[in-house]
Structure formats: C-alpha cells, structure tokens
Amino acid sequence: MLRALMTAATGMDAQQLNIDVIANNVANVSTTGYKKVRTEFQSLLSQIERAPGALVAQGTNQPVGVEVGLGVKPSATQRVFTSGTIVSTGNSFDVAIEGDGFFRIQLDDGTIAYTRDGSFKVDGNGTLCTTDGYIVQPQITIPQDANEFIITSDGKVSVKINNEPTQTEIGTLELAKFINPAGLISMGKNLLLESPASGQPIQGIPGQEGFGTLLQSSLEGSNVQIVTELVNLIQAQRAFEANSNMIQSASEMLQQANQIR
Predict the structure, then answer these.
(1) What is the domain extent for residue 35?
(2) Is 90 exceeded by the pLDDT of residue 253?
(3) Per residue in 10-43, pLDDT tens?
(4) Are the C-beta atoms of 151 and 216 separated by less than 8 Å?
C-alpha cells in the first residue's frame, strides 16, 4: 500500500511542474518573440516481481511477467520554436524575422546572446540596441542627421540624410541559427545563450542558406495559443486531482487494515 502512496506522490509532483510551465506560457502570451515550453514525462523504473521469459515447471518460458510501475518523472521542458503571429507596429526600428534565425546581441561582458525579439531602440550615440541597452550585432550606428531608417528583407540597413532622395547604406543585420535551438539556455530579457546541446551558431544573411527574411515595422508575437494552454491546464489539474484521490484511497485502505482485530 505504501507503494501506491509514493507512486501517486510522483504524479502530483510531475503535474505541479506541468502547471508551473503552463502558467509561465500563459504569463508570456503577450511577450514579443516568446516561444512556448512543453513538459515531457518519463515512467520511473518498474518493480519486477516475475520477469517475462522465466522458466516454469514444464520447462517452458513464462509468456508474460509481473511488473509494477513506480510512478513518473519530468524528463524535459522543451521550447517549441514554431513561428508566432507577425504584427505590424508602424515603428521603423521594429523588425520581425519571417522564418528561421535569431538576432545576435552583445551583452555587457562581451558574450553574444540570441533573440527573436526585434523591438529595437536607438541609444544616445545612435547605436541600434535592445530595450535593455544591449548592442545589436553587427553594430549599426545611425547618423544624427538621418531622417528615415530603412531595413530590407535581406538585412541591408540604409538611411536618408537631410531629406536627400538617395539612400546611404550603413550596415547589414545578420542572423544566426542552431542545429538544435531547443538546447539554448534562457537567461530572461527575451535572450537565449548557446550551450553544448544547441551546438555552435551558424551565421548568415537573411533570406540566404535557409535563413528567414526580415520585415521592418513589424514584430513577431508569442506562439502561445491561449486556448491550447487552458486545455492543457485542465488536463494537468485533473491529473493532479486523480493522483490526490489515489493517495486518499490508499490512506483509507491502510486505515482499514490497521483497524482489523
């Protein structure tokens, strides 16, 4: 009976983590470039009371055995990199990626981070940066007398100076991609860091060699589907409740056994 108590407890722990992940997805439903996370589970070891294939009295093999599972454990929380909805903003410094790739961002210590959040700003030096002031790589500096800012689908960045009809190219926005983007480490602030699991970044030009294209004055929304998350929440809650009832039933059976005279 104690085995049932511990098995149900593993189920409650697993569903608690599942609900935590769902809650984080719902909280980030409006976060630019956010990619939802799903929880994956594995069964724990089974207690084998009689192994399949064991010899029986007649010298034949037992066709089936007796195994009792010992519960469940979370095996992974995997980020799902499906595309979010592209929303037009009218802000010329907003950039969305249509397809595969990440923007490269330089942190204060020189480390390169990666993001799908293209809500860029310009600092006091005219440098293109994130909301937190991290510089977009390669660095792009906008002249003070520029009055129009243009980003093409292949990443070329140009400006018009003093209302001149011609455009002056000042740089190119590059992208990076990974063989396993699910292996990237989230550091908050819509930024991801490479890890041994993600592999080395592959840099390229938007629209070439499998990289996505850029869309100016737009942002990629979260790929969280609120209805799907609410359905997942109901399933997790019911599974948590079922495991709780299992603990209660096992406890009542133990109580009945203790009352036997």
Answers:
(1) 2-48+66-79+224-258
(2) no
(3) 999 999 999 999 999 999 999 999 999 999 999 8
(4) yes
| Number of domains making up the chain | 2
CA distance 106 to 236: 39
Q: Is residue 61 part of a domain?
A: no
| Cβ-proximal residues to 179 (8 Å cutoff; 6+ apart), any chain | 198, 199, 202
Sign of CA dihedral 251, 49, 11, 14: positive
41 & 92 share domain: no
* Pair 166, 238 in one domain: no
Predicted confidence (pLDDT) at residue 233 exceeds the cutoff of 80: yes
Owner of token pair 């860029």: 120
Given phi > 0 = left and psi -120 to 50 = alpha, else beta, which region is 219? Answer: beta
CB atoms within 10 A of CB 199: 15
Q: Please give the pLDDT value at position 261.
A: 64
Q: Are residues 210 and 245 in the same domain?
A: no
- Give this prediction's pTM: 0.86
